[in-house]
Specification:
single chain; Jelly Rolls; 6-stranded antiparallel beta sheet; 39% strand; globular; binds 2-acetamido-2-deoxy-beta-D-glucopyranose; DOH_DOMON; Cu2_ascorb_mOase-like_C; dopamine beta-monooxygenase activity
Length: 615
């Protein structure tokens, strides 16, 4: 019965009445679509405190899962018994079956509390971020799969749980370790809604990219954009996959004529919009409101600021429904109370197209986008900057994406990643506010790596807009702003030709690609033509394609806001080798980890002692 007493002892630390006791949660999310399961949390240096509120008077449970399913999950369950006392337990699920009671080994949940009123049960606990017990899941820096379940009744035996049934359970992806305190808005804030208008999503295709032209209204002078949030038409939450808001290197001449026009992106949209390639901001499914740091804003409405925007909406319609009509979009918050720093957005990517080539049957293929030091340095020099402060990151890949990693290199040394997510989820993406702004200095370079799993695919995966194609694109939010907007590079295809047994190659103006000139059976063929005629994928061939990512000569796109080259002539040698890659400390082998375990166990002993003396 230690749990009962723990309630009395620790009530002040983890309390449902946060306001009166000083626990302030920094993040919250509904875990289910019905909005019955509400999670609030905050992180401290080594711990996370969570409060789960569920509309039930029975049992509630939350778990940390490797992939959204039960096996391998670390589960916390609690309820308030008929005796009015709270109960909670730590479980470990080995399979899709009743989880194993993990309470005797090392209770990882402490400062626990459970209460209920007429309608809701609320449980609250604190846990360490890093857990070194093999049955317990560390909270990741990147995306976490959180599972939840509840039951209308309490369990009859405190070591067993009631089966939640098919509906009272689920999973969702969450970024847990990045605080998102909504900031107070200045009094003069005004909003600008950029919405689609009753768009009938085509029922004959899985993926639709709709592009809409928007003339920015007269804002009455310079403003700072300080927050954005999605406005999703109720009912279309599953279909609206992402928005990217672009500005144009060259704006259409007649803005009024283009305002409110729409077309399929890069297909039926007006020619003039092909200049609209500079990302201003991006949102994707699962994301919520994004607040810029207090000292920074994105300039709009000034004389040199964009007067036209292109809103790209990605509709995902796997069931090919023909009844989806949508008016979703973005809401921007603007203020005249200007902040100290002008924000810029830098796109680091590989080209979106056939040049990104991912072999089938690969458990791990990494595409590498390299933002060369010369490009970054030139961009900084042109803007007379000695450093960039990166405060947010938005990595983007499609369905095969597993890990995304924004690496930071200075000279021979790699520094800690700007943002790394080893659990990337296509269905949950958002701009991540970094814990601390990261400084990019002249001479630094950035590598953006996307690692894919194509073991379930028989054909090549190429880069492209469709969900089944891939992308490897990251947007970095930083200040002060420079004109450099896109820093992209990707391997030249003669590398792939050589990997596919061509013994000599040349560039063909005709095909706008490299072709083989020997041996005879490959003459005049491009790498893609050879690939499409079918090749036998061996581990060796996959490895050759992988080496191309770091060893092939490259194309480079180092461009400013007006789509002019900032540096170079468009081609590059292979990226330099990083002599000293970043090695992350193993938090479970060091003395710190041992100390943390001892501390936690001591806490349990102290609690047990208190309990025994009280009882
Ligand atoms: C019960 O708790 C829930 C969740 O905190 C709250 O929304 C609801 O208003 C409470 N009901 C009563 C009657 O206090
Ligand atoms: C998470 O990021 C922090 C710094 O932001 C780092 O110290 C820590 O090692 C990372 N943890 C993991 C598991 O990568
Ligand atoms: C969109 O369609 C709805 C329902 O037909 C209609 O009420 C609304 O006025 C339309 N919105 C616009 C902006 O045309
Ligand atoms: C390759 O293309 C060139 C130019 O189009 C042509 O002259 C030549 O006959 C072709 N060779 C083969 C083997 O198809």
């Amino acid at each position: 019965m230690w749990t009962t007493v723990a309630l009395l002892v620790f009530v002040a630390v983890c309390d449902v009445k946060a306001a009166t006791t000083g626990v302030t949660f920094t993040n919250n999310a509904y875990l289910d679509e019905a909005m019955n399961v509400f999670l609030q949390w905050r992180r401290d240096e080594t711990t996370v405190t969570m409060q789960l509120e569920v509309q039930t008077r029975g049992m509630v449970a939350i778990g940390f899962s490797p992939n959204g399913n039960m096996p391998g999950s670390d589960i916390f369950a609690g309820y308030v018994g008929d005796d009015g006392q709270p109960y909670f337990h730590d479980f470990y699920a080995e399979a899709q079956e009743h989880p194993v009671y993990d309470g005797d080994s090392n209770q990882n949940y402490y400062d626990v509390l459970a209460t209920e009123n007429d309608t809701h049960t609320i449980v609250c606990f604190t846990r360490r971020i890093v857990l070194c017990d093999s049955n317990d899941k560390t909270v990741n820096n990147g995306t976490n799969r959180v599972i939840w379940a509840w039951h209308a009744d309490d369990p009859t035996d405190e070591r067993s749980l009631l089966y939640h049934g098919a509906t009272n359970r689920g999973s969702r992806s969450l970024q847990i370790l990045y605080p998102r305190t909504e900031q107070a808005l200045p009094d003069d804030v005004q909003t600008l809604e950029l919405l689609n208008v009753n768009y009938s999503v085509p029922g004959n295709r899985h993926t639709t990219y709709l592009c809409r032209g928007i003339k920015i209204p007269d804002l009455g002078g310079k403003k700072h954009l300080i927050r954005w949030e999605p406005v999703i038409q109720p009912g279309n939450e599953g279909a609206v996959h992402h928005f990217v808001l672009y500005t144009c290197g060259q704006e259409p001449a007649d803005l009024d004529a283009h305002d409110g026009q729409e077309g399929i992106c890069y297909s039926t949209m007006p020619e003039e919009w092909y200049h609209c390639t500079i990302t201003l901001l991006a949102w994707a499914i699962g994301g919520t409101v994004f607040d810029l740091p207090q000292n920074a804003g994105i300039s709009v409405g000034d004389t040199n600021d964009p007067r036209f925007l292109m809103l790209e909406t990605h509709y995902d319609n796997p069931d090919m429904r023909d009844d989806i009509v949508d008016s979703s979009g973005l809401r921007l918050y603007l203020t005249s109370t200007l902040r100290t720093n002008e924000v810029g957005v830098l796109q680091v990517a590989v080209d979106v197209g056939q040049s990104q080539k991912i072999p089938p049957g690969s458990a791990s293929h990494t595409t590498v986008a390299h933002c060369y030091s010369e490009c970054l340095q030139q961009g900084m020099e042109d803007a007379s900057l000695t450093a960039l402060n990166v405060f947010g990151a938005f990595p983007h890949a499609h369905l095969a994406g597993r890990t995304v990693n924004i690496r930071h290199v200075r000279g021979a040394n790699e520094l800690q990643a700007i943002f790394k997510d080893e659990f990337y989820d296509f269905n949950y993406q958002e701009t991540v506010p970094l814990e601390e702004a990261r400084q990019i200095l002249p001479g630094d370079s950035i590598l953006f790596e996307c690692t894919y799993d194509t073991t379930d695919r028989n054909d090549m995966t190429y880069g492209g807009l469709a969900t089944q194609n891939e992308m490897c694109m990251a947007w970095l939010l930083y200040y002060p702003r420079m004109d450099l907007a896109r820093c992209e590079s990707w391997p030249m295809s003669d590398w792939y030709l050589t990997s596919l047994s061509a013994t000599s190659t040349e560039y063909s103006e005709d095909k706008q690609d490299f072709i083989a000139t020997a041996p005879a059976n490959l003459v005049n063929l491009t790498a893609d033509e050879i690939l499409s005629s079918g090749v036998t994928w061996t581990d060796e061939l996959r490895a050759a394609f992988q080496r191309g990512e770091t060893q092939a000569a490259r194309y480079e796109r180092c461009m400013d806001n007006s789509n002019n080259l900032v540096h170079g002539d468009g081609t590059r040698p292979a990226p330099p080798v990083i002599e000293f890659p970043w090695v992350s400390a193993d938090e479970c082998s060091g003395s710190d980890a041992v100390a943390a375990n001892i501390a936690a166990n001591l806490l349990m002993l102290v609690m047990a002692y208190i309990i025994m003396t009280v009882m």
